Amino acid sequence: MESFLYKYVATVCSQLSDSAHHIHQLIDMYLSYNIQQTLTSSLPAVLLASTTVLAGTPASCPNTPLSCKNTTAIADTCCFNAPGGLLLLTQFWDTNPATGPNDSWTVHGLWPDNCDGTYEQYCDKSREYDNVTAIISAAGKTDLLSYMNKYWKDYQGDDEDFWEHEWDKHGTCISTLEPGCYENYSPQQEVVAYFQKAVDLFKTLDSYAFLAAKSITPSFTHTYSSANIMEALTAPRGVEVTIRCRNGELDEIWYFYNVRGSVETGEFVPTQPDGAKSNCPANVKYLPKTGTPPSTTVTSSTGTQPTGTSIPGSPFSGKGTLPVTSGGKTNGCIISGGTWYTTGTCATYTATASGDGFTLTSSKGQCAVTNSVLTCSGSVTDPTSFTAVAGKLAYNGSSDFYTNSVPTGSVQAAVSVQQQATLLSIGWKSS
Question: Is the pLDDT of residue 22 over 80?
Answer without folding.
Answer: no
